[in-house]
Amino acid sequence: MLYRICLLSFVCLISSAMVASEGTAYASERQSVELFEFETPGQQKQAIELAKTLRCPMCQNQNLIESNSPVAKDIRLKVFQLVKAGKTEQEVKDFMVARYGEHVLYKPSLSRQNALLWGLPVILGLSIVIFMLRSVIRTKKQ
């Protein structure tokens, strides 16, 4: 019994130490995002506008500027670093899509998969309406 209590205390101590160390890691990373310096104001504006067009993978309904999640801060820092390194907007978007998938973009490109995703419900809805109209017409004829 005493062994279990000591083991549980040890596990709690270790887990609290891990949480504390993660908190300081996030705090230092948050500082690096908030204090990020660009070479020109135009570069800063470009990076912020670009981050507004990218969706937080964790939040889904917020862009990288609005979101305060640790994932969004990591991605925002990477976007800032890529812009500062001289990457174009399309290169940054391509990097983010390759890493997080196309759902990270607010305006995904038109592809077969996206067209199928948006077109299938429309086709299905029209098919149902046509089927219902045919059924009503047949019933009236009888």
Automatic annotation (TrEMBL):
Q: Does the keyword Ligase apply?
A: no
CcmH/CycL/Ccl2/NrfF N-terminal domain residues = 32-136
- The organism's superkingdom is given as Bacteria
**What's an example of a GO molecular-function annotation for this chain?**
metal ion binding
What are the BP-aspect GO terms? cytochrome complex assembly
Against CDD domains, the record matches this protein to: CcmH_N
KW Acyltransferase (keyword) present = no
- Provide the alphabetized UniProt keywords: Heme, Iron, Membrane, Metal-binding, Signal, Transmembrane, Transmembrane helix
One Pfam family name is CcmH
Transmembrane stretches in the record are 115-137
Cellular component aspect of the GO annotation:
plasma membrane
- The signal peptide stretch is 1-20
Q: Which family does it belong to?
A: Belongs to the CcmH/CycL/Ccl2/NrfF family.
What is its biological role? Possible subunit of a heme lyase.
Can you say what this protein is called?
A: Cytochrome c-type biogenesis protein
Q: Which organism is it from?
A: Vibrio hangzhouensis
